[in-house]
Write a structure and sequence with these properties.
Two copies of one chain form a homodimer. Chain A has 353 residues and is α/β, with parallel strands linked by helices. Chain A has helices at 21-28, 32-39, 48-61, 67-74, 93-105, 119-131, 147-162, 184-197, 213-229, 245-258, 270-283, 316-328, and strands spanning 77-84, 109-114, 134-140, 166-170, 178-182, 203-207, 238-240, 264-267, 292-297, 310-313, 336-340, 344-345. The first copy, chain A, binds a DNA duplex (16 and 16 nucleotides) through residues 9, 12, 15-16, 20-22, 30-34, 36-37, 40, 42, 44-47, 50, 65-66, 68-75.
DNA sequence: TTGTAGGCGTTATCAA
DNA sequence: TTGATAACGCCTACAA
């Protein structure tokens, strides 16, 4: 793979219209250095007279500093590349706001990209971030449980770190960097325990893609809950979805058809839980009286559907905020995983049976 | 206002670890020029032998091109700055995906920022975009109906365009550039006409902030509908909200208290319509039997609440996509407004009275 | 306090 | 086809 970033020589657009720093300096009748010192907010002292002249010239000439030239000298820039593996619908304005708020406070810019679930695209974007000499990179979402994939990421990120970059993740990747991870095990365990404590024993599980680390953790949590309750684990009650609503419907149909005695369903995303609602609606099944449902994510929609969806909070904004703060602080970034709790939110979609 | 972008001289981070183009060239035993030609995907022909050597050296050295150096020469970069005035909740992953999809296809990157409703911040971000020498800027959302504001934006964008930048908006700003605007007049008119045709005459309106252009358009549309039906316009039935859910509740309370004979409410955002749902719920008012509701936006949530919300589509993704396509094409950008329809989606929240 | 000059990593021009 | 070399716009020792 050539390191060429499919760069196409752009039509050089008339180039600087002579309003660079040099123009400002000339108009103000000062040297380049003086102009720079005034305009770049250097600590170097400049006499009030010259300072005014430079400022005025800059204003008149509508001078806008060239960040590329600056970052070429500095070797880095105050931009954090945020890589979202797959921008699903539970990624909302709230998350962006969380990221943006922290970044802005520190005077940083965000470069947000979406790999749309493609590993190839992910690597390509990571490389772009490096080429852009961003100062930090944040990986959003849960990573793939695949050693080859992990190795490629590690290689790329190592190169980045070696050149002074900072990395953190918002979601588990099991990479040698600072990771803020949701407590998926506890979250799923709480969901299943809640269902069990309401008398449900035949619980269908609609899982997210099995390739994702978070999915395996949630399965672990579910198994743990069953084990604690002494209820045998039944692999046949697990159907895999893709996080999206439609897949929730399909999985639900399958589950209900093959196991008519299922009384409750745990879907690993609110979207898929809504897919279950759709099926229940179509079949004339009442939720929660005839079918109990628990979701995951606590999307804004969860409280507004009828019945309001009992679900587990996925602390997306919290993870994002923490990862951003870690990247922008000066504290050294240790390779560690910081667990953020996933709380169960009880609403109206589960009935006692 | 100094053009200084509050730039703080960062700690120069050990600078290039000697793995720049020069290192690659040296290792491959070729000149800088040759290495550049191979790595930058130039059309200039290079013999197979040298090409291989360069590629290999680049691989071994983990060479990543410096985009800053490139853009310093080119004077521009394939990045489009996307400015969201206020990232409200109806700005979703779908919009980002729409933007990203088009950009990625053309090999461009997106720099997404959120001004959080602050004019000062908006101008600051615009200036940052210019400093970054982005190739295009997209303004998302409806602009403020304020000449001073418009003048400041125009000044900033003119400077940008003069230096070769491309500008488009996704939402009405009434600026001298290519604008993709939603047909707010028709949208609001359709909403009110639908209510009127269902026998409602006392219709409360919860408007978005009056400072926003789109709000005025929607008021115009509403007035037009009343006029056509020969129903007198009643200013007292209009209460201003801020787009958010809570403001919808407050406005609804006010409306219902002051005008107990109101039979329907048109809220200019789905979020505020949900605020109306909240009030109805609290007051024990049945929707739509005792109170009809129409929203605006067609948020994903609209179809899932009970009763499903009748609303007007705000074609956010469509606007975004079109604006992005316009920016990335080579076609000259005329100052024009392209109207995108706002369709009424009839669901279950309106009853005949 | 001010100015001069060198260099950041690339690409483009022009000879060879 | 290849290789010197001059920009690109800016910051910062270092000298004045």
């Amino acid at each position: 793979m050539p390191p060429n970033l499919s760069y196409v020589p752009a039509k050089r657009p008339t180039q600087a219209n002579g309003s660079g720093l040099a123009a400002v300096a000339e108009r103000a009748g000062v040297s380049l250095a003086t102009a720079s010192r005034v305009l770049a907010g250097s600590t170097h002292r400049v006499s009030g007279d010259l300072r005014d002249r430079v400022l005025h010239a800059a204003e008149v000439l509508d001078y806008v500093p060239n960040a590329s030239a600056r970052s070429l000298i500095m070797g880095t820039r105050k931009i954090v590349g945020v890589l979202q593996h797959d921008m699903l619908d539970f990624f909302t304005a709230t998350n962006i706001r969380a990221l943006e708020e922290v970044a802005d406070r520190a005077g940083w810019l965000i470069m947000l990209v979406n790999a749309s679930g493609s590993v190839e695209k992910e690597l390509r974007y990571l490389r772009m971030f490096r080429a852009e000499r961003v100062g930090a990179i944040i990986l959003m979402g849960s990573g793939l449980d695949d050693d080859g994939y992990r190795a490629m990421l590690t290689r790329e990120l190592n190169g980045f770190v070696k050149s002074g970059g900072r990395v953190a993740t918002a979601g588990r990747h099991d990479l040698p960097c600072t990771e803020f991870v949701p407590d998926n095990v506890a979250g799923a365990q709480a969901a299943i325990e809640y269902l069990l404590s309401n008398g449900h024993h035949r619980i269908g599980i609609i899982s997210s893609p099995s390739a994702i680390i978070g999915t395996r953790e949630r399965i672990t949590g579910a198994k743990r809950a069953f084990a604690h309750a002494g209820v045998p684990w039944n692999e046949g009650l697990v159907v895999e979805g893709d996080h999206r609503r439609a897949s929730g419907s399909i999985a639900c149909e399958q589950l209900l058809t093959r196991n008519p005695d299922v009384t409750a369903i745990f879907a690993m995303s609110d979207e898929m839980a809504l897919g279950v609602y759709d099926v229940a609606h179509k079949r004339g099944l009442s939720i929660p009286d005839e079918l109990s449902v628990v979701g995951y994510d606590d999307t804004t929609i969860a409280r507004d559907v009828t019945p309001a969806l009992t679900t587990v909070i996925y602390p997306n904004s919290e993870l994002a905020r923490r990862a951003m703060e870690a990247c922008l602080s000066d504290a050294p970034l240790e390779a560690a995983q910081l667990l953020i709790p996933c709380e169960l939110i009880v609403r109206k979609s589960v009935a006692r049976v």
